[in-house]
Structure formats: C-alpha cells, structure tokens
Amino acid sequence: MRLSWSIGELLLLAKRHRQPSDYVCVELAAHSGHKLLYTPPYHPELQPIEVVWAVAKNRIAANPATTLQELDAKLKALFDLISTSTWVGAFKNVRHFEDKYLVKKGHSQVTGSEDVCSSFFSARGELKNRLVHA
C-alpha cells in the first residue's frame, strides 16, 4: 500500500471518486416536474439577497455590535425593518442584469405573463402570502 502521495495525485483521486451531491430540493423539484436553474458563481448581481445583505451590513457598520448576542438582536431587527421597496428594487435590479446578459448572449430579454415583482408583491408594495401549507 502506498503511503506517500503528491497533492496533485490526491486531488485527482478525490475528483475521480467524488460522489454526486444529492439535494432534497432538487429531488422534490424533479418529482413535481420542475428543473432547478442555478446562477453562475461569483455573480452577486444575480442574487437579490446580496443587495438586502449589503443594506444590513451597512447599517451594522454604522453602529457596530459589541457582543454576539447584540449582533444577533440587531440583525433580526434590521431584517424586520428592510422595506418591501428594497426587496422589489433588488428583484428589478437582478432582472436588469439578467436582460443585459441574455441580450449579450443573443437571447431575448426575460419575459413572462407577469412581472416577478408583481407576483410576490401587491400594488401597494405589500408582500403577498406565497406560503403553501402541506
């Protein structure tokens, strides 16, 4: 049995014997006839949560917490205060970048029967109840 391996050999062996990742959400989506699409790595402009997280981080930076308990409390309070318009703006910003990338690739812009934002938010900007109870 060989006891000495180079890093390159170990990486090659690990890659060769890697097990595929099985995620419950992928299986549930497939079982319901859906296919999950993934955004490319290192593209925060395609992730609405990145905008919201940036808002929270900026507010924390302006008034930093001194303990983990204080940080936890501040984050929870901040996320409760983030407005619907911030979320809508984040979704619209993502849509802008999606369209920009699709046009660059020679595809048409993102279209659909309804705007993503209007499917989640009412005309007054209130979050619609989108929870499905089993």
Automatic annotation (TrEMBL):
Instruction: Provide the Tc1-like transposase DDE domain boundaries.
Output: 29-71
* Protein origin, superkingdom: Eukaryota
* Signal peptide positions on this chain: none
A GO molecular function term, named singly, is: nucleic acid binding
Pfam short name (any one): DDE_3
The protein's matches in InterPro entries, at most eight in alphabetical order, are given as: RNaseH_sf, Tc1-like_DDE_dom
Q: Which PANTHER family match?
A: DUF4371 DOMAIN-CONTAINING PROTEIN (PTHR33939:SF1), PROTEIN CBG22215 (PTHR33939)
Protein's UniProt name:
Tc1-like transposase DDE domain-containing protein
Cite the source lineage: Eukaryota, Sar, Stramenopiles, Oomycota, Saprolegniomycetes
